[in-house]
Structures are given as C-alpha cells and as structure tokens.
Amino acid sequence: MSLLSAIVFSLAAVASAGPASIRRHVSHLRSCYDFVVVGGGTSGLTVADRLTESFPKKVVLVIEYGEINPTPGVFDPPTDWITASPDQAPTWIFSSLPNSALDGKTALVLAGQTVGGSSAVNGMFFDRPSRYDFDAWSEVGGHAYAHWDWNGSVTFTAPTRAVAERCGYTWDVSAYGGTTPIYSSFGDFQWDDQPVLNGTWQDMGVRVSRECAGGDKEGICWVPTSQHPVTARRSHSGLGHYTAVKDTRPNYDLLVKHQVIRVVYPKGLKRGPPVVEIRSLADNSVFGVTVNSEVIISAGALHTPTILQRSGIGPKAFLQGAGIPVLIDAPGVGSNLHDHSGPPVQWNYTHYGDFSPVPEDMLNPSFKANATAGFDQIPATGPYTLAGGNSAIFVPLPNITANYTSITSKIRALVASNSAASYLPPGPDYASSPEMVAGYKAQLIALANLLDNPRAPSIETPWATGQIAWAFLLHPLSRGTVRLNLTDHLAQPILDYRAASNPIDIDIHLAHMRFLRRITKTDTMQQYGAYETAPGPAVSDDDEAALTEYIKKTIVLSFMHPCCTAAMMPRRKGGVVGPDLKVHGASGLRVVDMSVMPMLPSSHLSATAYAVAEKAAALIIDEWKSK
C-alpha cells in the first residue's frame, strides 16, 4: 500500500460507520463454517485475517459481542490530557471481589466491548516484552514449549530527522522485523517538562537505552504508540485486520451483537470440532453454528474462561457446584489470574521551571484550538499526536536494591518447604490440586530466576509529564481466579484478584517504592526544589509498617493487563492449552488470546496479543496445509 493510499484508508476507516458485510442475525449466516473465531478483538481478528488470506476456499466466521464503533485514541480531540473521550467505544467494566490482604480494596478492570476489542480502547502504549519473559515461559512449560521464545515482528515507522532531533527519539528499525497491518510510531511532540524525569532517571543510575523492543528491555526507553505514522489516529485490529481486508475476502464473515454461550461436543470430545452455541443479544434466541475444521476462542483473559466453564471444561468441584456437567476436569481454567499493579510516588516543586507547553495549557481555548488544528493536518502535529506518552523506565530488581537476593531466596524457600500452596486460593480446585500446586511451584522458580537476572526488568514507570511516578509490579507472585456468576451464568464473571495474598509481593513493592523515592533527592530535581508529597516526609524508608500501609492505601490493583487464565503449560502443571494452543483433551478447540500466557510479561499486553495471534495463525495454517 502506498503512503498516500494508507493515509486515505486511515481517514476513511475512522469515518466509516460500519461495513455492509457485517452479519447481525442467524438468517444471514451460512449453513456451516470451516473456522469459527470466538471474539472479534485484538487476537481474534488477527487470526481470522490470516486464515481467510491463506485459505480463500475456507469460510471463517468471527462472533463478536460488541458492534463496530468509533475508536478515538486515548488522547484525541476534543479531550484534554488523558480524559475520557465522549466518543470512546463501549467497554466491559469489571470490579473484583475485595482483596483481604489490601484492606478490602477492589480492582477496577476495563476491556473493549467492540470490534477490535481492547486494542480499540487501550492506552496505545505499544511496547514489547523482554526476551527473558519468553524464556521463562519455556522454563515453566518444558522442552516442548521452547519454541515460544522471544521473537516476532510489528510495523514501525521511524520519525523524521527533524522530529527525532526535537524530541530526542532513538530507535533501531531492525528490532521490529517485518510488517503487519497494525501501525506503530512516535508522535511529533513532547511536553516541555518531559526531560526533567529523563535527567532524574540518569541521576539515579538508570542507563539510557537506544532501543528497548529488541529483547534487551532495560533502562530508559522510548516506546512507540499504536497509531498511524501520518494521521496519528489509533491503529487497532478492527481496522487493520477487518475493515482493511473485508471487501476482498468473501470468505470472511463477522457476526456482531451475539454472545457465545458454550461449545458442545454432540459426538464426544474426540470427534471435534465442537458446535458453537450462540445467543442473540437482540431477541435472546439461541442457535448453534456447525464447524468443519476448528473453533478458536479469543474472548480475552476474563471471558475465555467463562465460555470454557459453561462448556463443562474447567475445575471439577466448581462446575459441579454450578450444576454444569463436567466434560473435562481442567482446574487451570479461570485460575492463575494476575495483573500489573502498583502505588505512586508524588512530589511538588518550590520553584518549578518555566515549562511550556504542559498539559494545563490544554485548558486555554486558543492553545487547544491550535492543537486540534494540528491533529487534523496531514501529517498530524502537536500535542494530540502524543497519545498517553511514549517514555518509560524498566529496571531489574538487582539494580533497585542490593538486598534482592533476600527476596528471591524467600521465593525459592516457598518451593523447597512445600509451603507455596498456602498462598493459593483454597479448595480442591486450586490449593489442594497437585497439578495447580506443581504449576505454581514451577512459576515461582521461573520468577525467582527473572528477579535475580540483572537484565530482566522488575519495575516499569511510564511518564510524559507531571509530578507522579507509578511503580508497576511487572512480575507478581499472587494468583486469583475468574469464575462464572453462580446466579447467572451469562452475566459478567466473578473476579477474585487476591492481590498481595502472597506477601512477597509486598516485599517487592517496598523495594520499588524505596527506589522511586530517590527521585526528589537527585541533582536534576533539586534544581527545582523538589519535595515529596506522597508517601511524604512523615513516612521514612525504615518504617516498613508505615510504608506498607501507604502501599495498601494507594495501590492501583489493575493497570488493565489481566492475563494467564487458560495457561499454556502441561496438563500435569495445571495447564489448559499445549504449545499448539489446543485445549488439552478437546479436539478441534484452541485458545488464542492473553489467557494463554503462563505469566505476565514485562510489558503492556497489546503488542504481545498481536504476536501470540500471529504465531497461533502460523501454527494453524501450517497444520491445515499439511492436511
């Protein structure tokens, strides 16, 4: 596609209300399909695009709960700085059960309820994990899982020389590999105070990295945004993997406003693929879709487990209590839930610099009008091209605290003493399940190795402006669950995050907080008379009780990265899918979304969701071509 064509397509796609080929009723469907993809989100649409391209004679159906909606960026006109857009696509809103270890605090989680899924509503921060995260996946899974190592490709467009010099960007195009229909790029703008923290991190000994997408993710990083390099509009799977191709793919059907209830094996588990049972949101009618080749569930880390559980694939004791016949006793379905979380450090200045522009300038009507005009230019310019920001630090635990081995020794001791299970959710489906305990022990060893690694990040702190720094815990040890609502199996699931149920997570939070509290003591910050406002001078680093209380009070329990609830691990370790992403014991059924990760990577999840989907599509295509 030429640059001019790409610009025209991007603008047309944003304005489009919805393609005519969308199906909205059972009468619009074909009698059967070769592949059915459950979920039209980040991963599901990627897989569907690749299958329809590779098999033009095979028919693919994507079933999506939501609809096609406008999908503005996280910071597009007419919003101010990171405020909710009036045109934002619908989202699922989840609230977890109270976390007993954190004074009853609940996690608020959002996910996209639209074609494009969370890629259409997320923060557009398009970073890739560390290579050591993927090595840890292989370590947990065993030799058969080793091909899920660090690899992949995304489309990246480098900034112009003028923009790079003005903003200070560095990059290495070779880190990104090939091309996909999902764009990533840098905006042509930075807030004027962005260099303050950049200098602060260097004062604190954080190294400057030229490129953090090449697998070695440690230091001060520039992170691309999932946006078109010319228009600066959001780039997401609904545009790149559906709208861009649907007119040339007569074998690609998209059914919207329908909920997948379950999959059914009328001839038994060994004679798949299953029939997909669907409910219309318009009239509540229920019908089945016949599938010839296989079903791919891509409903996300919070909905994929509930579809499997309604199908009778899940924890035996829970399914029996829910009155669901047990098809496969799989205790890992809906287990292993975890997410990135963390508290903030905040500060103020006694004599702040004469910085301009800063986000407060968006309140000036003239400045905002100029920013809007710049965003509408070709190419787009100005504040609205920045999205939520594109700079962050990623620091390993050995570079955060000299006492890191005291933390990793505690983790290893949990395994050696056989006490790890005491921190898992109680009951026969988890803490008393030999498979789930074995899997958790394997994860703990892999996590201890990650935290010992001086090149594997333990904390992320993104920034663009302002006087706050968040301490993202990249590798939590605590595990929660996703379970069906027992009073209404079709309602939103019950999330039990159980954050900090493993107390070593608090030890890591404490190390992260003590590290970030060095911010105001740096030479760069002292130029402006910086002083800490939270936790504040009344809380000393040595007062562990007070600092722990601050963490419990201010921690955000979800940075919207839930994962790992249908983990890719051996069945003997509580895994739900194998390295081919096929559900253990269920023929013709795979899972392809962020639920298959065994453990969280050191990144936001969007780029990884695309990479997992591309890998999965290649596996599926190779298998069916060989047949």
From TrEMBL:
MF (Gene Ontology): flavin adenine dinucleotide binding; oxidoreductase activity, acting on CH-OH group of donors
Keywords: FAD, Flavoprotein, Signal
Binding residue positions for FAD: 42-43, 260
Active site: 561, 604
Cofactor section: FAD
Annotated ranges, domain Glucose-methanol-choline oxidoreductase N-terminal: 300-314
Annotated signal sequence range: 1-17
A GO biological-process term: secondary metabolite biosynthetic process
Domain of life: Eukaryota
Pfam families: GMC_oxred_C (PF05199), GMC_oxred_N (PF00732)
InterPro entries: FAD/NAD-bd_sf (IPR036188), GMC_OxRdtase (IPR012132), GMC_OxRdtase_N (IPR000172), GMC_OxRtase_C (IPR007867)
Family of this protein: Belongs to the GMC oxidoreductase family.
Protein name: Glucose-methanol-choline oxidoreductase N-terminal domain-containing protein
